[in-house]
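sanity check this fold:
=====
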Amino acid sequence: MKSFYVALLTVLMLILGSNVFSEQDKPNTSPDSLGSTNELKKINSEENEQFQRGNYLIDFSDYEEGSIDQWLKNKGFKFEQAADDRRKLDLDVDEGALILEARTRLRAFIVNESLKPRKYSGVRVEWGVVKYPRGASYEAEVNNEAIQVLIFFGDEKISSGHLILPDSPYFIGLFLGRHDMPYKAYKGKYYQQGGRFVCMGNPRPGETIISEFDLVYAFKRYFQKEEVPAITGVALTMDTTSSGDDGRAVAFVNRIEFFE
């Protein structure tokens, strides 16, 4: 039986994939202004200058041999939708990175609900894209991505904004986009009260970057809250369902680290 988060991820990707707009493009309907986004960018730049102490690390550099699927399962991950089909999503490890290759149009989830970071303030991701999905752009409302790290907060169910859609814990999705503005947040037609998607950069194909994101600041700013709940789930997602070139894309991730 699918867990709540896996079922919710499916709904989120199906519903939000074609109904996302930029908060900055809707200044009169969103509490997040262009100024707040620039503040967030400044804070993250300052953090890059001073390496933070790690709190909880998901490391993809420790693979030695054997089944990659089993190695990931041993880390607490499980595969949903196309992530469980190697004819659609190929997984490999090279130079300390987990490589995800979409061989066709797909929607894939690699989900981990077992991690329990201690006190945290932000997240650091070492990652990159080898091949972006052709035509993917949140700015152009082709809301696909080669890789996204989706983070859930707490257990409180926030309204989806639709009677037939399940309510959800708060979530923030971090993705790499070729044509999207770094640190620009997007929200969907539904789950507006509790969900955001943020572009973390536009690395050149094959380039490895380290992205840092102040989760505490962003959560408080996006959702107008004073307290930030515990992280209760993380997922690697890949969506090329609306992309050209038969949805082919390649991305990689070396590590995901939550720090104080």
